[in-house]
Specification:
Elements lengths: L4 E11 L5 E7 L2 H11 L5 E4 L7 E5 L9 E11 L4 H10 L1
Antiparallel strand pairs: 1-2, 1-5, 3-4, 4-5
Length: about 100
């Protein structure tokens, strides 16, 4: 049996002060994820395609970090087996 794959989006935000830490958010919808990130950061967030050889990377900028010139994080997309997706895991947890 071949598994069905679904696309997911993972955001990684890196905060360096006062102590370095990383926050990750995962969603099945890119626009919802961007909206959540913007709300989390209090608005003013910029999302731009990365200028790298790696496809499907969006870089996140916010005016509170070096006037919006230094990336605060990134979003990547990837395929995951449907039964291991965020939606499936949430449904399993709620059913338990």
């Amino acid at each position: 049996m071949n598994p069905t794959f679904v696309k997911q989006f993972r955001c990684t935000l890196v905060v360096k002060t006062p102590k370095p830490r990383t926050c990750e958010l995962i969603s099945t919808d890119l626009n919802t994820l961007k909206d959540d990130i913007n709300k989390l950061l209090g608005g003013g967030t910029k999302f731009e395609p990365a200028h790298t050889t790696t496809p499907n990377i969006t870089v996140i900028y916010h005016p509170t970090l070096n006037s919006g010139e230094t990336p605060l994080g990134w979003i990547t997309s990837y395929d995951v087996p449907e039964q291991m997706s965020v939606g499936a895991i949430v449904e399993q947890t709620l059913a338990a």
